[in-house]
Amino acid sequence: MFSIARTVRELAARLRSMDWVLFFSVLVLLFLGMAAIYSVDLSRDATDLTNVKKQCFALLLACIIALFVSYSNYQFLEHYRVWMYVAGIILLIGVLFLGHTIRGARGWYVVGSFSFQPVEFMKAATIVMLASYFSRRARRYFGWKEFFESFAIVFFPVIVVMFQPDFGSAVVLMGIWFILALFAGMPMKTLFMLILSGIVLFTIAWFGLFAPYQKARIATFVNPTADPLGQGYNVAQAVIAIGAGGWFGRGLGFGTQSQLKFLPESQTDFIFAVIAEELGFFGVTLLLGAFSLLFLRVSRLVRLSRDNFTTYLLLGIVALMFLQVLINMGMNLGVFPVTGIGLPFVSYGGSSLILFLFYIGIIQSIAIRTVRVTYQSF
């Protein structure tokens, strides 16, 4: 009886120590995403709501994983960083030979009616690997040795991802490394050399790695009116959908752009446009407010973290989320080229949802074990 009572008390203490404000913000994002996916499914000829069912299954699995991770010690990730990284590289190489091509990129393992995108796992492995590397060098001068060693960690997965080709995920991986390197103290001369190298790499990629459709997307970004019925069509329809939403939207399931199928990939790349059209300014404000709250809570944990690995791990996670939100919304608004990056917690995709809730489990594990964040301390 004593052990049972003690276990119950420990469980209650951990529940109180969870960051419930962060939990609420993620819940809002999941609700908006599921509502938008349901709305898109209504426009399809099939009435069995296939995407909704798949997303619900992925959500259930993701919640179980997140709960398990939140009650585990997140420090175990550092011990398995090399295994995670190697497994990620193997999965990325394997998908080039065994994977299926979806939306122009050979980046999915497909088993029956379910698919898995290994680059999502690679993002997690890269964050853990970089967090471990920078945490062990946090008090050192950031020189060329640190530059090349840390860059090598992200270079190999980026090259493999570019062969799929998946330019959007490659940019996100590079962005995570860049943000962590800046926090680690990368000097300005190194930053200048990095920008110069980026220009050179982009030139090489343009002539040797980019697929024709990727070049067309970038050309359309530079001049959106060049091909309004071709590569510029998606962005044009997304902008129309966002502008048509008004204050409170047309109503869930009544958006003309998504329901009449003017907006391609409406459940993934352009789900932000669906929310903007059907829920209007109110829905967009709710979406942005939830993301802002999520970033604020993680930033608070960064300031209060007790060790370097925790700090860089949180920075890597928030960098990933911020970059994907920025790129996805920029795509929908025509500010960035269309790169196939989904909106975290919102866009349809099982592997992405599982990994992002895995990150939430890590964040909650940190909150429980380090700073005891509670709703009352917000």
Summarize this, please?
The chain has a 3-stranded antiparallel beta sheet, with helices on one face. It is mainly α and 378 residues long. It has helices at residues 2-17, 20-42, 50-70, 76-79, 81-98, 118-135, 144-162, 167-183, 188-208, 212-222, 233-244, 256-259, 271-304, 308-333, 350-371; strands spanning 100-102, 105-111, 114-116.
Can you characterise this structure?
With 378 residues, this protein is mainly alpha-helical. It has one domain (2-76, 188-377). The protein is 70% helix and 3% strand. It has a three-stranded antiparallel β-sheet with strand order 1-2-3, covered by helices on one side. Helix 5 (81-98) runs parallel beside helix 7 (144-162), helix 8 (167-183) crosses helix 14 (308-333) and helix 13 runs antiparallel to helix 14 (308-333). The model is unreliable at 373-378 (pLDDT under 50).
Report low-confidence residues grouped into runs of 5 or more. Answer: 373-378
The average pLDDT score comes to 82
Q: Outline the biggest β-sheet.
A: 3 strands, antiparallel
Estimate percent helicity.
over 70%
Keywords:
three-stranded antiparallel beta sheet; disordered C terminus; 378 residues; mainly alpha; globular
